[in-house]
Structure formats: C-alpha cells, structure tokens
Design a protein that fits this description.
The complex is a heterodimer of chains A (about 290) and B (about 350). Chain A is mainly alpha-helical and about 290 residues long. Chain A has 13 helices and no strands. The chains are: A mainly alpha (about 290), B alpha+beta (about 350).
Chain lengths: ~290, ~350
C-alpha cells in the first residue's frame, strides 16, 4: 500500500515551488491583461464623479445606443436560437448528404473576420451592391440602417448556439426520442417533453454566449451601420465615437455598461454550468 | 396480434441488412431473433416497430398492412438495449409518459393515470422506486422500468432489442426468467432480439436464427438445437466438432467432399475400439466444469482438438486422464456437403 501512494505522489504532484510558480504566473498574467483593463474602465468612468457618470448615460444618444443594442440582441438571439436548435437537431439525429458541409458552414462566421462579413453585406445590399438598385426601387433600406445591423449581428453570432448543441445532441443519441414516438408522442410532444429538457442547460449556455457577442459585436456592425448618431449606433460604436471626440468620461461610462454585461454573463454562465453539473446533463465545451 | 413479414429487404449503402425475409409471428407467442451482430436482427425489429422503413416487402399486423403507418400509430411497445429512459423524469413520470401524451379525448384523468402507473410498477415489482431518477437505478431496475413504460400504452405487440445485453450475467439470468413469467401472464405477442443462444433457447417459444440478412432456421428451441438445418446453425447454437471427410472418411463415406458435425455430448469414449469406424485418439485435457466433464482429445494424425462432454456419472464409471489412448465414435452426427458449409468459414 505505501508503495502505491508514493508512486501516485511522484506521478501527479510537482514540488510546491513549481506549483506556486505556475499559479503565480497565471495570476499575474490574468491581472495584467484582464483585471487591469477592467479596473481601468470603471476607474475612468467614475474619475469625474457619479454625477458626470449618470449624465453621460442619460444623454439621448447614449440611450438610443443602448436601446438599439437591446433591440438587435432581442432579434438576433431568438433567430439564432431557432436556427441553432433546427441545425443541431438535423445534424445530430438524421443522416443526409452534405452534412459535413453544413457543419463547416456553421463554423464560417468563426473563421471569417467580422469586418469582412460586414463588407459582404455592403457588397450585397449597399447602394452600389448587387441588390442595391432593386432595394432602392422598392424603398427598402438595409445598409446604414437597423436591418443591416441585425443581419450582420445574426451572421456573426450564428454558430454559438448550434455549436453548443450539436455535440450535446449527438452524444445523447436518438433513442429517447424513438421511445417517446413509440409511446405515441407526436413530433412536437417529443420535442417539448423529451428533447428540450435534455438540452436545456446547453441551450441556455449557448444563448448567454450568443447574447454577449450580439451586444458586444463591433467589426461587422461598424461596417454596415454608418455611425449615424442616435439612429444606427450600437453601444460599442457609440463608445468609439465618444472616445474619438476625447469625451473620455462618457466613453468609459458606456463602456462600463458593456463591461458589466460581461461580468453578468460570466456569473450567469457559471451558474448554468453549476446547475447543469448538478442535474447530470454534461455540458459540452467543444469547438 | 400476429405479425406477417413477406419478402422484406433493406439495404444500407452496400450492406444488405435484410435479404428477402419472410416470417410469421403467431399471436401471443414469444419469438427470439437470434444471430451474430450485423445479421440484421435489430434492423428487422426496428422495421416492425416503424423506426426504420423497408426497401421492399410487406409487413402486416393481424392481416392488416402497416408499412405506411407511423411508429406512433402502430401500437407497438419497444424496449431498448440501453433502456432509453427519459433521464430528466422520475420513474413514475417515465411510466406515465405514454398515458400523458395521448390525445385529449382519449386521455385518462390524473387519478386513473396514477392507478395505472402503480399497477405497472407493481407488475415489475418496483413500486418503491417511483420518485427516483433513472440515473439512480441499477441496470436491471432500469430495464424493468423501461418494460413497464412500454406496457403502459397497452401495446398489441412488444418488441425488445437485446433487452438484457447491457446487464451482468447474474441479473440477466434473473430477468430472463422474469420476462418469461411475465409473458405467460400477459400473453402479448413479443419479439426479442438477442445474440445469446442460451437466452433465446431458455426464454422463447420459437427461435429464428439469422445470419447475413437471411433466416437460417425457424423452430422451437429444441428443434434448432437438436436438428440444426444448416452448418451455421450447428455452429452458432451450442458447441460442435467438425470432421472432414478427407480425414475421417468412415463417418461421411456416403458423401464426397463433406463435413460431419458432431456435438460434444454425442461422442462415446472407450478404451477398446467399438467397431471399425472408431477413431484412435489421445486425451489431452480433462476438466470438470460443474455437472459435466469436458475432455479434449486429438487424433494421432492431427493436432486439431476434439471436444467431448461427459456427464459426471459416465466419467466416474470410466475415468480418464491426460495421455490415455482411447477410441471415440459419434453417437449422432449430421453431414453437410462442402458447398453448404462454405458459408460457415466466414460466419
């Protein structure tokens, strides 16, 4: 018996010094590159006191940026929720031709620079774009308007939910669904009573990440928005404009809201992970 | 309810899973589909259950064509190898599922559902587990719950896909007997898939032996064991010794190129040659296994071992030990020509 414990100690335990060194390096790195900027955001936002902070947030343009960000997320997240479930369902439960192509396509937004995805929309729907004349003739404005921002955001946040669900649903197989159907359940009943409860934590996890990205997206949105103050500015764009105008307090005040969103996201994400673990549904963090 | 299968075929890519299968399952019988993995038995079961569609052929329940009927409309209970219990529901809710998803006008009230679920949990003797989740149950308990769940909708046909395949030997044996008793009580037409010949022979009224998408033999357990129709069945069910006509001409002399199949317990051993056809051999190994004694012998001319099983009484009457020179002679054997036997090498 003593031999076993010695062997284990040798193979899995480094000396105390090495352990401390590794933890120390990781900690300093985190503080320097993640903690410090986060602190700086809040520090700058409050540097001229609460009064100016509140004033900056209550400014109409700031409000409209916040509003637009919420609207865009409120459209993009549900759209990708429906798409994500549909795609994951198709990929995990059925065999069909072109399946791997579909998986690759879902990953496309991860591979493409957001600026490029924004530009693609301009090329397609802009005034000089392929569909530009037709859109103009029918008096539809996509680019430099809210619909374009929504489209670009949907594109960029496309993979989050699908990617979360595909491995989860693949691992769960389709036996439970088959059992439900053989017991007389309809397609909808099977989905609502069997499939959905089985993926709920993974789904929530994907929604949280998708939402964080939808609200925080800069590159793609920047290209299609046109930066019209009070009209087509989302929060990240608004921060940039304020900063370029040397209005640091206001810029950091809005930025602090985004930072707060990030912190809330992390908190909720940890809660979901904890809940999922407790309920025994393994969350997959692949890809 | 009887099941009629006519000329059923199913192909997966290049693999012929089912090759022109015809089979009749009588009302109220317990039928085993027995065969090695990949022989098509599970595919056949899934086609009966409506989880898979046949490429061609006909499927009738009680004379009525059901190919076009969706799985949910076939009124078939299905029990899966890995239970497929709904992991987020309690045992009670699992069993109640089939009752709760019924269309509104057919649905029972809550009290009636409770009564039925408890009746079923009683039947599988697991009433005390109603509040547990599947993850908290043992394999044997899970499978019994899965069975109760399938029975809840009062299916006319029960299909079981390797129901005991994922369980350990002891539990498996218990559940087998339990399933047999249950079937004797309920008399519901049942088809179960297994690769375990002992299981098939012990539980089923009739056994269908399958190989490579085709039916090799259909018969009672006794028939398939005592009178195998093909070399494959001979080898798949029980142990068997092969004697090639080249080496052991006297036993298969009436045939040209042929192989004689002899069960280990159909061989006599004696210290003197019984007659001219007796084969002189040397005892290589003697091992008592429970109630039987297994003796391995080899002919002088070859290194191939021949397996013989003796009852303890017969062994004690004429004990053997390693190195003894004895004579063996088959009491009973069956000869297949090489052409027929061809299949076997690949099986």
């Amino acid at each position: 018996m003593p031999q076993v414990s010695i062997a284990r100690r040798i193979s899995t335990h480094e000396s105390k010094g090495v352990t401390l060194l590794l933890i120390g390096v990781a900690l300093i790195y985190l503080l320097l590159f993640l903690g410090l900027p986060l602190f700086a955001v809040f520090y700058e936002a409050f540097s001229k006191g609460w009064g100016l902070y509140w004033a900056a947030l209550q400014e109409p343009d700031a409000w409209s940026a916040i509003e637009l960000t919420l609207i865009v997320a409120a459209i993009a997240v549900p759209a990708n929720l429906v798409f994500g479930i549909a795609a994951a369902w198709a990929i995990a439960k059925f065999e069909f031709k072109g399946k791997s192509l579909l998986i690759t396509l879902i990953d496309l937004p991860f591979a493409v620079s957001p600026v490029v995805s924004g530009l693609v929309y301009v090329l397609l729907f802009g005034a000089q774009g392929w569909f530009g004349p037709w859109l103009q003739a029918h008096d539809i404005k996509l680019i430099f308007a809210v619909p374009g921002i929504v489209l670009a955001t949907i594109f960029v946040t496309f993979p989050f939910i699908a990617r979360e669900l595909i491995p989860l649903m693949q691992a769960q197989g389709k036996e439970e669904e088959e059992a439900a159907v053989s017991l007389g359940a309809s397609g909808w009943q099977t989905f609502r009573r069997v499939t959905l409860p089985n993926i709920k934590w993974g789904l929530l996890y994907g929604v949280i990440l998708c939402n964080a990205r939808a609200m925080g997206e800069f590159g793609a949105v920047s290209v299609v928005s046109g930066h019209i103050r009070g009209m087509t500015n989302t929060m990240p764009l608004h921060v940039e404009i304020l900063y370029n105008e040397y209005n640091f307090v206001a810029a950091f005040a809005v930025a602090s809201l985004l930072a707060l969103l990030a912190l809330v996201t992390l908190l909720v994400k940890s809660l979901v992970e904890w809940q999922a673990k407790r309920s025994g549904e393994p969350l997959h963090h692949g890809a | 309810m009887s099941i009629t299968i006519e000329n059923l075929s199913k192909q997966f890519g290049n693999h012929k899973a089912l090759d022109n299968i015809s089979l009749e399952v009588n009302s109220g019988e317990l039928l085993a589909l027995l065969g090695p993995s990949g022989c098509g038995k599970t595919t056949l079961l899934r086609i009966i259950g409506g989880m898979e569609l046949a490429d061609s052929g006909r499927l009738l329940f009680h004379g009525e064509n059901v190919e076009q009927r969706d799985a949910r409309e076939r009124n078939v209970g299905f029990v899966f190898q890995h239970y497929a219990l709904f992991r987020h529901m309690t045992v009670f809710e699992n069993v109640a599922f089939g009752l709760r998803v019924k269309p509104k006008k057919e649905r029972h009230n809550e009290a009636e559902i409770r009564r039925r679920v408890h009746e079923l949990l009683d039947l599988v003797q697991l009433d005390w587990l109603e509040d547990r989740y599947p993850a908290q149950l043992s394999g044997g308990q899970r499978q019994r719950i899965a069975l109760a769940r399938a029975l809840a909708v009062e299916p006319k046909i029960l299909l079981l896909d390797e129901p005991f395949g994922a369980l350990d030997a002891q539990v498996r044996k218990e559940l087998r007997r339990w399933l047999r008793r249950l079937h004797d009580e309920l008399h519901i037409t049942s088809v179960f898939v297994t690769h375990d010949q002992e299981e098939a022979l012990e539980v089923a009224d009739r056994v269908v032996v399958m190989n490579k998408g085709r039916i090799e033999q259909t018969g009672t357990p006794d028939e398939v064991y005592a009178a195998p129709a093909t070399p494959f069945v001979y080898q798949f069910i029980g142990n068997v010794n092969l004697f090639h006509s080249r080496d052991h001409a006297p036993w298969s002399e009436q045939h040209g190129d042929a192989v004689a199949y002899v069960r280990p317990h159909d061989i006599d051993i004696s210290h003197t040659p019984q007659d001219g056809t007796a084969l002189p051999v040397e005892v290589k190994l003697v091992r008592a296994i429970g109630s039987v004694v297994r003796v391995e012998v080899a002919a002088d001319s070859s290194s191939e071992l021949i397996e013989i099983e003796l009852s303890r009484e017969r062994f004690d009457a004429a004990p053997l030990s390693t190195g003894d020179k004895v004579f063996i002679r088959p009491r009973q054997f069956r000869v297949f020509e090489i052409g027929e036997q061809h299949e076997l090498s690949a099986a």
